[in-house]
Fold this sequence. Notes:
The protein is of the alpha/beta class. The protein has helices spanning 14-25, 56-60, 67-77, 84-103, 127-140, 192-198, 216-223, 276-284, 297-300, 312-318, 327-334, 338-354, 434-450; strands spanning 3-10, 30-33, 49-51, 122-124, 144-147, 152-157, 164-169, 174-183, 206-207, 228-229, 237-240, 260-263, 291-296, 322-324, 380-389, 395-396, 403-405, 411-417. It has two domains: 3-233 and 392-450, FAD/NAD(P)-binding domain; 241-389, Alpha-Beta Complex (Flavocytochrome C3, Chain A, domain 1).
Amino acid sequence: MNSEADVVVVGAGLAGFCTAIEAAAQGANTLLLEKMGTVGGSTVLSGGSMAFAGTDDQTSRGIKDSSELLARDLLTVGDYANDPALVKVYADNQLDAYRWLVERGVKYAPVQAAAGQSVPRQHPTDPAEMIRILHREAAAEPRIRIETGRPVARLLRDPVSMRIIGVQLKDGTKVSAQRGVVLTAGGFSRNPEMVEQFAPLQSAAKSVGGPGNVGDGIKMAWHMGAGLRDMAYIKGTFGNRPDARPEEHTAMMAIYKGAIAVNKLGRRFVDESISYKLIGDAVLQQPDHVGYQILDEPIFALGVDGVKMYDFRARLREGSLLKAGSIEELAVKIGVPATALAETVATYNAGVLAGRDEQFARSGLVQGYGELRTIETAPFYAYPSTSALIATYCGVTVDPRMQVLDVFGEPIPGLFAAGEMTGGFHGKAFMTGTSLGKCVICGRIAGRNVALRN
Length: 454
Ligand SMILES: Cc1cc2nc3c(=O)[nH]c(=O)nc-3n(C[C@H](O)[C@H](O)[C@H](O)COP(=O)(O)OP(=O)(O)OC[C@H]3O[C@@H](n4cnc5c(N)ncnc54)[C@H](O)[C@@H]3O)c2cc1C
């Protein structure tokens, strides 16, 4: 071995920093290896929405929420394909994770409603600032060494005990990990071959995410016999601009404030209140995989500055949210048949006023929450939207201690994982804010357990 540490953590995104900080707090000398030149992975590109229940902000707004309700929502949105033990881990530890971040100086904008949430529990934060805070803390901790530009290529295993004993870097350097290795290397939204391999229907979705997120961690664990879970449930997210660049956040969710989504024919194609992952699937079935979110001035006014998915004014400033004085004029701007769009809006408005959406049975703004709104007051707006694979939310099987399980469900000694590269938690769809939430919750658990060396 060329060097050694008690714990090696692979990947310096949100899960990696939380793991390293907790492992060091248990007295473990921890080496955090990041393959790119800078830290932050997909985390810094994200919308910054985090799902927590029972917070002081919710209480002050009269929102009744609890760990139990959050767990129930997770299972509902995941269509009960989730591992209940991992859902319980989230529910039991989420409030502590929220407070742990607050103690460190992470700030949240007012709570919002979002996909998969039967009450508003999306706590928006600035993800880049959150990483800066954790990075600063980790860099100041003498037990943590952070090395960037250090891609890990393989896990090293003792041939007799079969324990994971370290890692080998791409340049051949070997690092021993006395207590264990934690993989926090993110998903594979930037690896089209892997997407094609596991979820061919999603190949039509745009690929967005951190440049290092090509599935290295999953492959390294898989090579050691790790089980995989949820691979078939990979889904893109609706609301991303069709011309988005791979490292650009463009998701806008006016639908959850009352907008409708139409296709290039000017027709609605889905109940807009369901998970944006499921709408992502629906838009992939539409001509050219393109939809438009259509809203009017009162819905536009419900935008929330600084909360990426609801920051309508920022989209208008950058020119991607198109504005017109009438529905017909808007139709011309986006190139859909004007008569069809006008008819669609009129039919939808009539349904809202009658209390019955005859077309798609939409009953609320998001997941049954919130009163529907008509679209009738000029000016009108349209946001071109497609499905983008911003994260993969599936991967290696882990137990509630975040120890990686092999294909037979047996723990692989010395190997842990956390963050986006773990499977079993989300099930078939996704509740907004649970990936970042899971990185903090599960990263901290992985860090504490790997430090115990058992
Ligand atoms: C545009 C966008 C919007 C999103 N919005 C939200 C949201 O609002 N709420 C939410 O909950 N989730 C959101 N997500 C998903 C969420 O951001 C990610 O799932 C989460 O940040 C993943 O964190 P992580 O720590 O697991 O991985 P990352 O933050 O991606 O970090 C993994 C790190 O590992 C490094 N790495 C990879 N391979 C190696 C290797 N071989 N050796 C060393 N290092 C390696 C990578 O370079 C990367 O830095 C969004 C994602 C995107 C892209």
